[in-house]
Amino acid sequence: MEKNLTTGSVFKTILYFALPYLFSYFLQTLYGMADLFIIGQFNGTESTTAVANGSQVMHMLTVMIVGLAMGSTVIIGRAVGARHKDEIAKTVGNSVTLFMGLSIVLTIVLLLLVRPIVLLIQTPVEAIEGSIRYLTICFIGIPFITAYNIIASICRGMGDSKSPMYFIAIACAANIALDYVFMGVLHLGAAGAALGTTLAQTLSVIISLLMTKKQKLGIKLCKQDFIPSRAVLGEILKIGIPVAIQDGCIQIAFIIITVIANSRGLNDAAAVGIVEKVISALFIVPSSMLATVSALAAQNIGAGKHDRASKTLKYAILITFTYGIIVAIIGELITAGIVGIFTKDAAVVVLGSQYLRGYIVDCALAGIHFCFSGYFCAYGKSYIGFIHNMIAIICLRVPGSYLASKFFADTLFPMGLAAPAGSMLSVIICVGAFVWMKKHGRLGDSQIQDAS
């Protein structure tokens, strides 16, 4: 399972690692979009809004878990690059202990708070009960969502991006089949969408554990590796917590924007919910590049190859920016067709098209700061990603959406523009931080000494 990523062509190595991850992310996004698409075929706007709002909450939780797991990916990647087998084993064992304990606590707390959460995001009255049913079932499945993501983070830290792709492919296929059974045949509405998602994720985890055991990790784990170590957990959390908070804040910003849309009425709420799902799908390349840069750069940093880490960043930015420009141009031409896939309501299609036209430009800009965030994370400076995202959210994204909603009551287009405006600010901060840190020797051998 272990794959050394510190030799050979940097560009080819990026493609080797990124393509399976990209496909994994696409499947994971499709996994979520399937719920929204299928419920739109069998139920009305109320159920669509319930699933859209509920899935926003679940997506926030998932990305925070993934962000926290980035600490495991980076520490394992450095150890692989440095060929420290004992450190790999200890990090894997402590990661499992940490995340399984966390998942149990999250499940209990969130089940107790499900109704307040639904009310907090100002879900339209017609969709409240559906959202509660959806989230209750999904919260029960949190241990399985966590298990999949920690297995995936361990694999990627060891240079294996293919295994997680197989695991999520199984979950995606199962989810689509179960959605048609629960929503199309049994007519369970939003609860059926949640059941399909949770059961598919459970199946994926069971199969991933069996496959991982069969393939073997390339390391030998013992009971002592699972005993919490303050030093190991400290390193994981030092990197993972800023990423998790950053990703959580981004999703909170999305939820605040959803609240703003919810206050405008059911059609606006459904339109924004649909577009957020579309954007998640379009961001597969930027998101895959963030994980790719962090994993590849971490291994090269561990091996002392800082030039390869910098080249990884450069090629990743080139790839994701080119992709973003192409997607933005095509998206501007077919926005109505894209939104129309998810709803038959003409008013929702019009509003969704307006929002998407403003938002889609972000595909080109977000990828740049995603790549920088992955690079900084590999050096143990994940706080930079947290800082630039918080500044963008507080200064532009949320206030921009709110003001646009108030001053442009008849269109969602200006609300959509708040996202690329925030990303532009993030790019400026990232470039400035990169130049300053390179000039002052903060991204080289001295950084590894500090991190150790």
TrEMBL record:
CDD domains xref list: MATE_yoeA_like
TM annotation in the entry: 14-39, 59-80, 92-114, 134-152, 164-182, 188-211, 239-261, 281-303, 315-339, 359-379, 386-405, 417-437
Keywords, ordered alphabetically: Cell membrane, Membrane, Transmembrane, Transmembrane helix, Transport
Subcellular location: Cell membrane
Superkingdom field: Bacteria
Topology term for the membrane: Multi-pass membrane protein
Cited PANTHER family: MULTIDRUG RESISTANCE PROTEIN YPNP-RELATED
Protein's name in the database: MATE family efflux transporter
Organism: Coprococcus hominis (ex Arizal et al. 2022)
